[in-house]
Amino acid sequence: MSVIAPGRRPAYAPIGRLRSSPLSGGKKSGFVSLNLTPMVDMFTILVVFLIQLFKASGEVELSSKIEVPRTLASQPLEGETGTVVQVSNEILLLDSRPFSTEEMGSELDVPIPGMVARLTKIREQNEKIFGRDPTKPYDGILIVQADIKTDFRLIRRIVASSNEAGWAKFKFVTQPAAKPAGEGAAAE
User: Residue 84: enclosing H or E segment and its boundaries?
Assistant: First the structure.
């Protein structure tokens, strides 16, 4: 038996074919396959997140049934987010949910029992999510959108209800009034 010098022997057949291929010549392919399903899912979640973020950035939608008062001292609600109360003599809504007659209580009850319960629940949920320093009062903002013809006693009941539920900050929605003509001319 004659002795033969060992030559190149591939570990298995495909490696040998890859090295000797005239098209690739042992180089890596430039084609990379992407799995598009997770990427589309990620972008969908990102778009929904951004839409929710911009929706919650201080926009208070005015109801067509409520005419808010006009004032010269109005300031924009830029960046303000909070729980919205819409009130007129016909309706009372908390985050677009109406109150039943049982929740309203009697006229003698200064705080509205249903509103106290709902605002307490919202405050407790926010405290669980965001945490709270027990030495400081709750810093949630109640945005009140009241009709110009609303009876003040109802507004007083809303403020008393929110105070009882632990809310201390209020913002009243108003529209800017046109400045009198004499005032602008005197300033120039």
Answer: strand 83-87
